Amino acid sequence: MWKLLFFFSAYLLAQAEENYYKLLNVNIDANEQTIRRAFKKLGLKYHPDKNEDNKEEAEKMFMKIANAYEVLMDSEKRAIYDKYGEAGLKKHQEQESQKKEQQIRFGDRYNQFFGGKKQKLFDDNKPNPYENTDVITIDLANINKLFRRNEVWLINFFSAHSQACAEFKDLWITMAVKLAGIIKIAAIDCEEEEELCDEYSIKYFPSIMLFSDNTAEYPELYKGEKTLQAMSDFAINKMQSFVRLVNTRNFHEFIEVDPNVAKILIFTDRKVTSPQLKAFSKEFKGKVNFGEIRSTETELVNKYNVNEFPTLIGLDEESEVDKFKGEQKREEILNWINGFIEKSKNHGSKIRELSRNLYITGKCSKSDKNYCFLWFIDRENNDAKNILKTLANDFANDQIDFYWVDKKRYPAFGLAFEGKIVAYRPKRKKYVQIDCEDYKCLHDKLSNILSGGGDFIHLEFVPELIESRTEL
C-alpha cells in the first residue's frame, strides 16, 4: 500500500512541476532526432547574446530545456520520467548520487551540448566542405562569434547535398582568402544547422547574407551576381570607415585632436579609401587615428619626402616617428601598427603646442584640473622645446602638462599673463610667473610650486586661446 501511495504522490508532484515534452514542444512519442532538433532550435532562441535585455531569464530557461533534453535523450531516465514524473526522476538521481545539476554554470551547460565533437543528424559521413580553409564554419557551438561581431560578415548558407553549393565552394574559399582581415567570410550547413537557417528564413541554396557590424540590424540577403567582384564590392560598401581625409588646411587639426591617440598617415594615389585601411581604422578605433593624404597634396608629400604610393608614416605631433618599410601585406602592416602604438606609449611624457583645437577639448581651459606649464616662444625655438621635453619626463608622475605656445599665433593669450613662462592652474584661475629659462632653475622652481610654494597671481577670468588673424 505504501508503494502505491509513494507513486501516487510522485504523480501529483509531477503534474505541478515541469513537463519536459511541453518545454521542448515535442510529442510524448517523439524520436531522438525530433527531440534533438527541437532542443537546438530552443537553444538558439534562448542564447543570452540574443536576449541582451533579459540575459538572466534566458539562461534560466536554457537550463530548464537542457535538463529536459538530457532526460528525454537518455532511455533509462526517460522511462522513469514517463512513469513517475520529475519527482520520481529526482528520487532516482538521489539514489544514484547525481545531484550536480544546480551547480553547473550556463556556459558550461551550453558547451556540454553544443561544444566539442558534433553529433550529426545525417549518417552519410559527408565532410565539411570548408574544413581547413579560411572560411569560418558557424554552428550553435560558436554562434556567439556572430552575435558578438564588430566587423561585417558574409555568410554562405549551404546544403552539403546541393550540386550548386558544391560548385560554389571554391569561389567562397577564394573570397575568404581575398578578404582576410577585411570581411569575415563564413558558412552554415543548413542540413546540420537547420535551426539557424530557419532563424534567417533561408529558402534556397546557396544563400548569401550580409551581417553588418551593428548587431541590432537584421542581416541583408544578397541578391546580386555570385561573382568574386560583385560580392566583394557589396560587402566592402557596407564597411564603416574611420579614416579622415587630410590636407594642408586640416593637417594641424588632425595632429592636435586626441593628443593621447597615435596618429598614422597613409599617402596614396587612390581616389577612394582602401578596404584594408577601413578595416584597420575600425580595428584600432580609439588607439590610432588614421589620416589619408592624396598624392596631389604636394606640400605634405614633400614635407615627409614621400616618393612612392602607398606610404605609411607614424607621427608624434608633427615630427616623423616611423615609416613603414615592409611589403604591403596585412600581417606586416598589422605588426608595424602594433609596434608603433607601443613605441608611442614608451616615448615618455610629451610636450605639445597649445593650440585652439587642444584648448576647445579642455586643455588649459576652465575645466582643466591640472597645472599647465606654458612657455611663450617663437615656433623655431628648439632649445626651449628640448628643455620642456626634459622637464616633462622629470615630472611625468605629477599633475602637470607641458606646452609651448606660439606667441605670434596667439598674442592675446600671452598678454593675459606676466612673463613668458608660467605655471598655470586654469580651474582655479591663478598662475605663478617663472623668471628664469635654464633647466636647473626651472626644475627647482617647478618643484617648489608643485609642493605648495610660489607667489600666485589671480586672474579675473580664464583667457580664451584665439588665433590672431591680423596678418590676413
TrEMBL record:
Membrane topology category: Single-pass type IV membrane protein
Swiss-Prot/TrEMBL GO biological process terms: autophagy
Keyword match Signal: yes
Record flagged with keyword Signal: yes
Main location: endoplasmic reticulum
Pfam families from the UniProt entry: DnaJ, Thioredoxin
J domain sequence ranges: 19-85
Signal peptide: 1-16
Record's GO cellular component terms: endoplasmic reticulum membrane
Subcellular localization, as worded in the UniProt entry: Endoplasmic reticulum membrane
Keywords: Autophagy, Signal
Occurrences of domain Thioredoxin (ranges): 113-241
Entry function: Plays an important role in regulating the size of autophagosomes during the formation process.
Protein name: DnaJ homolog subfamily C member 16
Organism of origin: Blepharisma stoltei
